[in-house]
């Protein structure tokens, strides 16, 4: 079923983001890349610290990065108190900050209109009529 879905996504010309919550997910996604069901370069998001998934351990992240297919693009995040240290860990291992940076920036407020998180936040808020929640902080340019 997953292979059929990957083939259909490929036929539609969509580039999937492969969210990986454990090493088994990484193995299967890499196998689909090897089988030609996902066009290169594949895009992986290594999701760490989620209950019943891969723990947020730097050595495990390093091992998972070493298992990525050659040429893969990747980012990683961890939840909770590990979120910001994980951004640094991901960059040190050659990944991009990924959603951890965007989420943190939007929650803590942006400092300028040119940050990707601000553009993403404006784009997302333009799709909804709901006003920003009181918990959101930062310049109005980030929120609307």
CA(first)-CA(last) distance: 40 Å
- Indicate the radius of gyration in whole angstroms: 17 Å
> Order of strands side by side in the largest beta sheet?
1-2-3
CATH topology of the largest domain: TIM Barrel
Count of strand segments: 3
Under the CATH scheme, the architecture of the largest domain is Alpha-Beta Barrel
Largest sheet: 3 strands, parallel
The total domain count is 2
Low-confidence stretches: 103-108, 110-144
Write down the CATH class of the largest domain. Alpha Beta
Continuous helix count:
6
Shape, per Cα inertia axes: elongated
The string of secondary-structure elements, in order, is: HEHEHEHHH
Pairing-aware structural class of the strands and helices?
alpha/beta
Mean pLDDT across all residues, rounded?
Answer: 77
Beta-strand residue fraction: 5-15%
Q: Percent range for helical residues?
A: 40-55%
Q: What is the subunit arrangement here? A: single chain
CATH superfamily of the largest domain, called what?
Aldolase class I
């Amino acid at each position: 079923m997953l292979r059929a879905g990957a083939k259909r996504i490929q036929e539609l010309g969509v580039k999937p983001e492969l969210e990986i919550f454990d090493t088994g997910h990484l193995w299967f996604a890499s196998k689909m890349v090897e089988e030609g069901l996902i066009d290169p370069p594949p895009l992986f998001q290594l999701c760490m610290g989620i209950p019943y998934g891969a723990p947020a351990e730097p050595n495990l992240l390093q091992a998972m990065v070493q298992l990525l297919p050659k040429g893969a693009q990747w980012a990683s995040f961890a939840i909770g108190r590990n979120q910001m240290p994980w951004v640094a860990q991901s960059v040190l291992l050659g990944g991009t900050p990924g959603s951890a940076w965007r989420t943190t920036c939007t929650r803590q407020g942006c400092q300028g209109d040119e940050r990707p998180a601000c553009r993403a936040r404006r784009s997302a808020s333009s799709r909804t009529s709901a006003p920003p929640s009181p918990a959101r902080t930062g310049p109005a340019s980030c929120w609307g």
